[in-house]
Amino acid sequence: MADDDTHARQRRALSHAFSQQALLEQEDILLVYVNLFIKKLGEMCDQDEPFNLVNWYNFTTFDIIGDLAFGESFGCLDKGQFHEWVALIYETVKAGAMEQATRRFAEPGSTIQNFLVNFIPKEKRARRRDHLKWSQDKVLSVAGSETTANELSGLTARLLKNPRVYKKLATEIRSAFKSEDEVTNDGLSKLPYLAACLSEGLRIHPPLPTALMRQVPKDGDTIDGHWVPGGVHVGVCAWAATHSPDNFKSPDEFIPERWMDDEWEGDDKKASQPFSTGPRGCIGRQ
């Protein structure tokens, strides 16, 4: 975890690329891949064969982030498969998760930790070491693509399972635009029910359901009435917070109206923080 000064410096360096103006300037790039995704989707539907929509969402988002971050897409949509570099990202992330898990079972360097680390396939460990020098690019690629694809997958599933919501959303969008050529980011941002569906999708399917960890200051602090020593890593599990009946009425039900109607004013909306909050909140939330 980067210290505050390092994090602030890196965030300043990237902030202009994630400004509202920069996003508007990149809209044409996004449309290229969105249109290609829709074309591929149509072709597969014409074949009347099942396909994995989650993968195709990932192909789209990885191609977009590849173009935005590196000036060239990964070609996932054209080939209908993951680029080998994208597959490498997945493998190193998995290895990292395994390594983090071992730290919770034993002291660094202990016999039991070394024993557990040996369960990580050698090729994954090697790939992770070789790939660390590209850590910032890797973070941008995963954070800007995998999380978006996860959210789109969850939202699509919820809309298909809730025809009432789907119909209401489709009516709002089709009433706002005469043709698909008129659909723009600015126009979509003015649709209240679409915004509510996105917020509810992020609540019920947080892209990163685990805790976004923070480190307690060196002098320690009191959290919810409990003293926590300095240096301890703490966090709130996003899934637990957004699915708790203490925070939301009917927490497991997909109800976009909770973000619009007074009937749901008792919900603690602040409990849903899919992009985290504070100075370390997600820079790409727009």
Describe the fold and architecture:
The protein is mainly alpha-helical. It has two domains: 24-157, no CATH class; 162-277, no CATH class. The protein has 13 helices and four strands. A two-stranded antiparallel ribbon has the order 1-4. Strands 2-3 form a two-stranded antiparallel ribbon. Strand 2 and strand 3 (226-228) form a beta hairpin. Helix 3 (27-46) packs antiparallel against helix 4, helix 6 (84-103) packs across helix 8 and helix 9 crosses helix 12 (192-204). The chain starts with a helix and ends in a 44-residue tail after the last helix. Mean pLDDT is 82; it is low at 128-134.
Strand order of the largest sheet: 1-4
Radius of gyration: 21 Å
- The N- to C-terminal Cα distance equals 24 Å
Query: What is the averaged pLDDT score?
Result: 82
Describe the oligomeric state of these chains in a short phrase: single chain
Count of helical regions: 13
Kindly list the characteristics that best describe this protein.
286 residues, mainly alpha, two-stranded antiparallel ribbon, 13 helices
Gist?
The chain has 286 residues and is mainly α.
Question: Helices, strands, pairings?
Answer:
Elements: H1 4-15, H2 20-25, H3 27-46, H4 53-70, H5 76-79, H6 84-103, H7 111-117, H8 122-131, H9 135-161, H10 163-176, H11 185-188, H12 192-204, E1 214-215, E2 221-223, E3 226-228, E4 233-234, H13 238-242
Antiparallel strand pairs: 1-4, 2-3
Helix pairs in contact: 3-4, 4-9, 6-8, 9-12
